[in-house]
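Forwarding the complex inputs:
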Amino acid sequence: MFILIVGAGRVGSAVAKSALAAGHEVSVLDEDPLSHERLDAGQTRSWDDAGGQFTVGAGLETDALIQAGIERADVFIASTDGDNTNLIIAQIAQRRFGVEKVIVRVMDPARAAWYGEQGLHTISPTQHAIEMFERALQPEFA
Amino acid sequence: MYVIIAGAGKVGRNLARELIAKEHEVTLIESSRESYLALEEEFEHAVVYGDATELWVLERSGIQRADLVVAVTGDDEDNMLVCQVAKEKYLCERIIARVNNPGNHDHFRLLGIQPAVSATDLILRLIEHEVPRYGLVHLLALEEERLEIIELEVSADAPTVGAKVSDITLPEGSLIISVLRDGSGFVPKPDTVIEAGDEVLLVLDPGLEDAITGYFAPNGRSGD
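Prediction (whole assembly, two chains):
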């Protein structure tokens, strides 16, 4: 599969590395050239040597998305540090480029829930953390 | 009318002032604490501190009863999101978005966020009006209604010079609605004769500009 990941922070870069290791074709788009180095960290081979692709650019720039290969992407992951950016670029991937599987990181549980109802596959780390805290506290409530 | 304005920068706060002066009810939402505190003295309860892209902030501002939501922050993603939830989640009938980067216009259109207004585009249009390039000026473009009004200066070598309006067969979907001559405009009659140097106003379906230009300014220059 061809996977395009926009935003290579802690989450995006880790997902990119494991997807590449699993044998997928992976392209990363990030505004910050430093994110390229994060992809190399802790690896025996550099990101490029391992077959990864990296493009400097913003997810809202159509040209950057095309350069990063969105037109042939099977999966699109929006994991920049901005919820609204992620929600908008995910819809662009879905509606304009017809990417089949689109996954969006949304910190805010409320926006994640509503956009989830609208058909976007949202993942809210905050919501997961809330649930884990609640579970961890359960013996205290009992 | 109850209007919610997201973003209290220069645009947002001046808009709020004008609307309040016209006796509309306004809530201005500002996410910077510093700006909020500076505005609170003037706007009192009409300014709310918060991130307008947070659903609970919009709800606390009464988005359910808003007649109009205007998103004018300096961030296009935020403006798109505010308008999208206003329209699709809270079923607000009227939205207006500000486009900061004209390159993002397509994204607003893709998400159905109309009208989307870009200051850069407006100024560019004014410049074109002052300094007509190729003799063609877009006066109005209603994208949703698929309707445009353009102005063309008739060049000396145009095939329509000397012709009666009734004898000019324009493409389907276009119509001459006004002629500007010697500083004043009039609605043409069937026997009005087009002269070089006239400015003709046409209403047309989008996409017909090139075809129409051939009738009035075939070499892409305005006639002198």
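The mean pLDDT of chain B is 91.
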